[in-house]
Amino acid sequence: MKKLVNGVILLLLSLSTISVATTKVEALSSSQGAVLSTPETNSEFGHVLYFPNSESSKINRYSLNRARKFYSSDLKATWTTLIPQEQEGAQKIEMNSFKMTLSYNGTMATKQDFLNHGIAFHFYITKDGTNFTEMTDLMVPQEGYYQIPGEFVGYRYEMIKTDPTAAIEDTFQVEANCLVDVDLTKITQDQFAGQAGLENWLDSKSPNGQPTSNYQNIFAIQPTISGQVNYQQLAAETDSPVWDSSNAIEGITVDLLEDTPTGERIAASTATDAQGTFTFSALSGKNFSITDTNNQLSVRVRPKSYKGWLVQEGTPTASKNLVVNVGRLSDIARQSGAYALAESKTNWLAPFDEVLEAGKNATNSKFILTDFETTPPTTEPSTTEPSTTEPSTTEPSTTEPSTTEPSTTEPSTTEPSTTEPSTTEPSTTEPGTTEPSTTEPSTTTSTTSKAVGIVTNKNDTNRTGGLGSNNSTNQRKLPATGSQQSFLFIGLGSLVMFIAASLLLFANHKKVD
Q1: pLDDT (tens digit per residue) in 11-23
Q2: Which of 17, 170, 434, 503 is 20 to 30 A from 386, alpha carbon to alpha carbon?
Q3: Is residue 250 scored above 50 in pLDDT?
Q4: 183 burial level (CB within 10 Å; 0-12, 13-18, 19+)
């Protein structure tokens, strides 16, 4: 009796495992899933956040359709995905972004492979959500996938048996990826402000079934970044301002900075109004656009000639650089609290699943300007730095090259003496390096004198290396443009070269005798 009971239990367990396996319904019988995602969020039957402010915030739609075990009574399998007509034109598939991959029994395949195994594959697109046009013959084969050209709003697959009476055990799978464009001019004001989701996409949940809502709402999120700048006159430089005693100041420039992998860039600039406030917003302020939602943003106030103070937690702190980190767009949205509905069913992807506390500074940053300047002034880097190149541009425009060119042509006749004059050359370069340091104490002339020294060193090595006279004379002109030489120095140099040449000619003449 006990053995019989154990046998019954084992039988029930085996039947339960079979039933569990068949609940995946990967037969025809089918399995279908679709996911909408952006760089920030991922959602299957949930919400997706779309940030129009960022170039990287593209909505990607991924769908997977798998069919296996076609029975003799099954003629075809069809899946449909389209955008509903309640908001015509609000969403569409981005031009030439649709890519589709076919696989047979887990191996990459083609339309012909499907046909060779008894399945005719068909692909249709719709531009109005109702009427479908077959694009099977227009699918462009690429390396590992098919590309569907053009722009459309929805698509449909069909897998039809070539022999209606055949039973096919094989697995046929279709994966599709495309980018979704949202036309902000075709949606309501609440949707544009991120307070209401766009209409749901429709998907077929079973083969040959009509498409039904998948509850994948898309929310357009455009968070606001704002703050205030005040001014207070202090009686003494040692005094500290008080926010409640300060007054609004108008016309102060404020920048929105984006920290990119290649450096800092200004995403937008605005000025404080009569109330001292500044706002970066697509809805009610200066619109802004960034390159990537991964990048952190900062707010910078240009204090002109004033001394700057940051006000955090009610306490003003003197600051030379009035910059406040406000985090990423997703952090700003979550800290603002205005998008609670959109975030209620949102699955955050890494690294956006971790909230940066810097986002709380996006809407309550406060700054105070006072009379006393900071040391050094905070405006110097942005206003005076580019002008430092002007002195360097005026030096080459002097008449020195014309005075030194004759000195370069005279030694050209004595260039064959490459060994002996090279010992005297270093003595000629030393005065040239000391003169700029005595006559031009500025920082720019010191850099030019270093450049001159580098060129003259190259000249010396070229001469000792035995290069041709043309190369040596061309290189010799360069140091002459950046240094000042007296006529006495030129005369002495010419005399030394003349004596050296005479000695060389005398030695050669003696050798010939």
Answers
A1: 444 444 433 332 2
A2: 434
A3: yes
A4: exposed
CATH no. for 23-220: 2.60.40
Tell me the H-state helices in 69-143: 111-116
Omega prior to 351 cis, within 30 of 0: yes
- Phi and psi dihedrals of 482, rounded to 5? -110, 5
Q: Tokens 């975030």 sit at which residue? A: 343
The whole-number average pLDDT for the span 33-60 is: 90
Distance CA 393, CA 396 (A): 6
pLDDT tens-digit series, residues 427-452: 343 434 434 433 344 333 333 333 33
Domain residue spans in the chain? 23-220, 225-383, 396-512
Q: Which residues, 6+ apart, have CB-to-CB distance to 129 below 8 Å?
A: 82, 83, 84, 85, 88, 153, 154
Q: DSSP states of 276-331 as a string?
A: SEEEE-TTTSB---BS-TTS-EEEEE--TTSEEEEEETTEEEEESS-EEEEE-HHH
3-class secondary structure for 238-280? CCCCCHHHCEECCCCEEEEEEEECCEEEEEEEEECCCCCEEEE
| pLDDT confidence band for 86 (50 / 70 / 90) | low
- Tell me the C-alpha distance between 266 and 290, whole Å: 9
E-strand ranges in 342-385 read 347-348, 365-370
DSSP H or E run through 22: helix 2-22
User: Which residues are 99's β-sheet partners?
Assistant: 147, 177
* CA gap 187, 190 in Å, rounded: 8
Tell me how far apart the alpha carbons of residues 190 and 376 are, in angstroms, rounded to a whole number.
Answer: 47
**Per-residue model confidence (pLDDT) at position 207:** 80
Q: What is the pLDDT of residues 180-199, one digit of tens each?
A: 999 999 999 999 999 998 87
Could you tell me the two tokens for 26? Answer: 């990967």
Q: Going edge to edge, which strands form the sheet with 132-134?
A: 132-134, 119-126, 154-161, 76-82, 202-203, 212-213
Here the tokens at position 53 are: 């402010």
Q: In terms of Cα–Cα distance, which of 367, 291, 270 is closest to 324?
A: 367
Cα–Cα distance for residue pair 232/262, rounded to 1 Å? 38
Cβ atoms of 28 and 172 closer than 8 Å: no
